Amino acid sequence: MRRVEAPGVVIDVHAGTVAGVTGKAETHQPVQGLLAAIDPLSSYALAVPGEHRLFAHVVAGRALIGGREVAAGQTGWSDPVAGAAETVLHLAVPDGDAPARVMVYSGTPLREPVAFGGPFVMNSRTEIAQAYRDFQSGAFGPVPRTARLAYDR
User: Fold this and answer.
1) Which strand (E) or helix (H) includes residue 116?
2) Which of 13, 27, 31, 150 is the most exposed place for a label (fewest CB within 10 A)?
3) Would you state the pLDDT for residue 79?
4) pTM score, whole prediction
5) Order of strands, edge to edge, in the sheet holding 62-65?
6) Looking at the DSSP assignment, which residues form a beta bridge with residue 56?
7) How many other CB atoms are found less than 10 A from the CB of residue 57?
8) d(CA 92, CA 37)
9) Cα–Cα distance between 52 and 25 in angstroms, integer?
10) 53 forms bridges with which residues in the sheet?
11) Strand partners, 122
12) How far is the C-alpha of 145 from the C-alpha of 124, rounded, in Å?
């Protein structure tokens, strides 16, 4: 796992670059993605490109995200900051006995229409129909019956 460690904080970087550590995910758009484990009374100042919109989802515990308390199962959002090259998202667990786990993903807004259909996300219903035809005709290549995930440890 590509990892950043700071006092009381461990960040697994999935995509993009955090504190000089680049995640393994290959993306077609600028994206930053991570999972942070934060101990009580610890904090981290996460640098985020200014043009990114982000969400922070608390997987476990409770955390202060950008100064607002967010509990497990809740998600906070932010919009891009016009003209800023970089912004800082403050992540913290100000008190308590339990650490928090926070998933943060950000990216440049595409500002395109979005259409959903089953497992596909495209720009129009016509593209969704084409994706189904491509999948059913085998154009996606072989699809394993069981997806197996590999983790670096």
Assistant:
1) strand 115-117
2) 150
3) 86
4) 0.79
5) 42-49, 86-93, 62-65, 68-71
6) 76, 104
7) 18
8) 10
9) 17
10) 107
11) 115
12) 28
Tokens found for residue 12:
């697994």
Q: Is the Cβ–Cβ distance between 38 and 23 less than 8 Å?
A: no
Structure confidence at residue 25 (pLDDT): 93
Question: Partners of 64 in the beta sheet?
Answer: 69, 92
Q: Which DSSP helix (H) or strand (E) runs through 14?
A: strand 9-15
Q: Is 56 exposed, middle or buried (0-12, 13-18, 19+ CB in 10 A)?
A: buried
Q: Provide the strand spans (E) within the chain.
A: 3-6, 9-15, 17-18, 21-22, 31-38, 42-49, 53-60, 62-65, 68-71, 75-78, 86-93, 100-107, 115-117, 120-122
The one-letter amino acid at 105: Y
The CA distances from residue 88 to 17, 46, 78, in Å, are: 14, 5, 11
Average pLDDT, consecutive stretches of 10 residues, N- to C-terminus, the chain (153 residues):
95 96 93 97 96 96 95 93 91 92 95 91 95 92 67 52
